[in-house]
């Protein structure tokens, strides 16, 4: 099964090369993705090239690798095992699906740019509240994968998400909500010390760039 978003397109050979990659995997529960190119409105582009390490699900959760819906091809058995996308998500359904897919199946990257994605303004997320809601939902994937098998890793990954959500509230100029969120996580402000320092540094850097 291959999926294609309406603002993406496959490059020649994508289907054939991913089918071949899947055929070379031993498991029936399998998925492969490919490198891709993001094209901006002015024609400039960024090439996205990643590699999977020992734990692809964790790399995805920590935003170390980012693959879109259109880069994926997977077996029907994987789709059935996972019961498709989690439709409680308004965004990031593909990321959440990929996290679960890599946790239960064999995963492979075709190291070639086989897909292009057009970055339109409508693709950009303007509603910070919706982003926060989806990040909270995405944390359920860490519970699904790690809570029982690796509690330490689950706690560490949850901390990463908490920090991201904290920084989003700061970015939205809602410091009270940011602090409230911190405390609601049952963590002291000291636990967010590095996040606070990084956020302040970024704000100072942006102010400095504006000044010059």
Give a description of the structure:
The protein has 212 residues and is an alpha+beta fold. Helices cover 49% and strands 15% of the residues. Strands 1, 2, 3, 4 and 5 form a five-stranded mixed beta sheet that branches. A hairpin with a 5-residue loop joins strand 2 (30-39) and strand 3. The protein is globular and about 50 Å long. 25% of the residues are buried. The model is unreliable at 121-126 (pLDDT under 50).
Overall geometry = globular
What proportion of the residues is helical, as a percent range? Answer: 40-55%
Q: In percent, how much strand structure appears in the residues?
A: 15-25%
| Secondary structure: number of strands | 5
Instruction: Give the rounded overall mean pLDDT.
Output: 78
Count of alpha/pi helices: 8
The whole-angstrom Rg is: 19 Å
Query: What would you call the structural class?
Result: alpha+beta
Largest sheet: 5 strands, mixed
Q: What is the N-to-C succession of helices and strands?
A: EHEEHEHHEHHHH
Topology:
Layout: E1 8-10, H1 14-23, E2 30-39, E3 45-48, H2 56-61, E4 73-74, H3 76-82, H4 93-104, E5 106-118, H5 128-146, H6 151-171, H7 175-184, H8 193-211
Helix pairs in contact: 4-5, 5-6, 6-7
Summarize the structure.
The protein has 212 residues and is of the alpha+beta class. It has helices spanning 14-23, 56-61, 76-82, 93-104, 128-146, 151-171, 175-184, 193-211, and strands at 8-10, 30-39, 45-48, 73-74, 106-118. The protein contains 8 helices and 5 strands, in the order βαββαβααβαααα.
């Amino acid at each position: 099964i291959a999926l294609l978003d309406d603002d993406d397109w496959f490059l020649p050979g994508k289907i054939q090369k991913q089918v071949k990659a899947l055929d070379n995997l031993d498991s029936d529960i399998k998925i492969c993705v490919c490198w891709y190119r993001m094209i901006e409105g002015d024609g400039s582009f960024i090439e996205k090239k990643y590699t999977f390490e020992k734990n692809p699900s964790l790399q995805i959760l920590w935003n170390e690798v980012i693959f879109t819906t259109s880069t994926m091809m997977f077996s029907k058995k994987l789709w059935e095992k996972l019961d498709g996308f989690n439709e409680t998500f308004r965004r990031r359904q593909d990321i959440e699906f990929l996290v679960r897919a890599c946790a239960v199946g064999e995963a492979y990257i075709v190291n070639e740019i086989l897909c292009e994605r057009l970055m339109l303004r409508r693709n950009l997320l303007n509603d910070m509240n919706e982003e926060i809601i989806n990040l909270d939902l995405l944390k359920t994937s860490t519970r699904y994968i790690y809570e029982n098998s690796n509690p330490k890793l689950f706690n560490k990954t949850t901390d990463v998400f908490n920090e991201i959500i904290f920084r989003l509230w700061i970015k939205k100029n809602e410091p009270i909500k940011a602090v409230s969120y911190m405390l609601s996580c049952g963590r002291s402000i000291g636990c967010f010390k590095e996040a606070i320092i990084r956020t302040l540094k970024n704000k100072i850097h942006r102010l400095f760039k504006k000044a010059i």
